[in-house]
Amino acid sequence: MTIITRTEDLARFCEAAKSAPYVTVDTEFLRERTYWSKLCLIQLALPPASTPKTPGGEAVLVDPLADGLSLEPLYGLFRHPGTVKVFHAARQDLEIFFHDAGLFPQPLFDTQVAAMVCGFGEQVGYETLVRKIARANLDKSSRFTDWSRRPLSDAQAAYALADVTHLRVIYEFLAAELRKNGRESWLAEEIAVLEDPETYITRPEEAWLKVRTRTNSPRFLAILRELARFREAYAQERDIPRSRVFKDDAMIEVASTKPATEADLGRSRLLLREARKGEIAGGILAAVKAGLETRDLPQAKAEEPGKPGNAALSDLLRVLLKAKADAAGVAPKLIASSAELDAIAQGERDLPALKGWRAEVFGQDALRLAAGEIALSAKGGSVRVVAVG
């Protein structure tokens, strides 16, 4: 078991890895006390055939917390077009590398996405794929460990390596399945989303859109927008969790009560003690004032009044989606969400469910159903599409 702590050792491994067809990658990180994920460990594994010429063997651990270690050799491997970088559920890993180095590993393969495309269900977990494809079991005892502590225990190291060694078998199986069923382009569409910087950028001025509230008053929303903007910027600049500034329920309370002084903040039931005075309190009061004075009032998206037949059409679209998903062997939620089905029934057309491979599997017939060009027919336990007219 090799733990790389020196840049020159990482460089030797990564240079040799560039001759391999793929490398499996995983990370361990902490985020409980920071805004940005703290990278604590990187796991890398190569096909067993690559072992003789790869320093350190076929699988290694890289310690990014080691003094003086530069990850630039790894980023060079990530840029190398001849080696596929294989992750499972890559989004959080990619966010770390995008924030730290401004890059995405390419070419990229995500086994969770590939498994959904190949009919393994929604958000299929790594443990499930290890059991079903690699025919092995995982030791989960180190799952909730503190990966920032050193030295790593043997159990931690073994757990971490298992996240990339079994991944080789899973990748080779799923890549073959995609070639066989002709769905490589489906995966490419999903990978494009993972490689889009917009997926990982949270702009303070847009943070209010993620806050759930039942109040749609434009003035309330203006204050909420300013409060969320302040919280996001403050948390990002100081690398602390949003909840350490103030939580959503406290923000909604403040937007409703509109405090004007620190004394007003002191009467809040939900604000943390640290938020009732000092820099955070000043930011809150300034945000409330800006929200009260602005003429740029946000408008909540109004719910469209129900149109005749819309509720029924939504139900029909759900039946069509289930039938199409079953026929394609794909999880229904990978094709379209419940909200998208309702939006189609209300006349919206700029939706992911109506584009790319989803249009081929479901979207085209969904539009035909909405236009009254097809109907659904039940026979036994199956549902069929029937042309109308």
Describe the structure.
With 389 residues, this protein is of the alpha/beta class. It is built from 16 helices and eight strands. The protein has a six-stranded mixed sheet, with helices on both faces. A two-stranded antiparallel sheet has the order 7-8. α13 runs antiparallel to α16.
Keywords:
389 residues; alpha/beta; six-stranded mixed beta sheet; 48% helix; 11% strand; flat; RNaseH-like_sf
* E-strand count: 8
**End-to-end Cα distance:** 68 Å
Give the strand content: 5-15%
Mean pLDDT: 92
Apparent shape: flat
Q: Helices and strands, in N-to-C order? A: EHEEEHEHEHHHHHHHHHHHHHEE
Q: Give me the secondary-structure category.
A: alpha/beta
List the helices and strands and how they pair.
Blueprint: E1 2-4, H1 7-17, E2 22-30, E3 38-45, E4 59-62, H2 72-79, E5 84-87, H3 91-101, E6 108-110, H4 111-117, H5 126-132, H6 154-181, H7 184-194, H8 218-238, H9 242-245, H10 248-257, H11 262-266, H12 278-293, H13 310-328, H14 332-335, H15 338-345, H16 356-370, E7 374-379, E8 382-387
Task: Give a short synopsis of this structure.
The chain is an alpha/beta fold and 389 residues long. The chain is 48% helix and 11% strand.
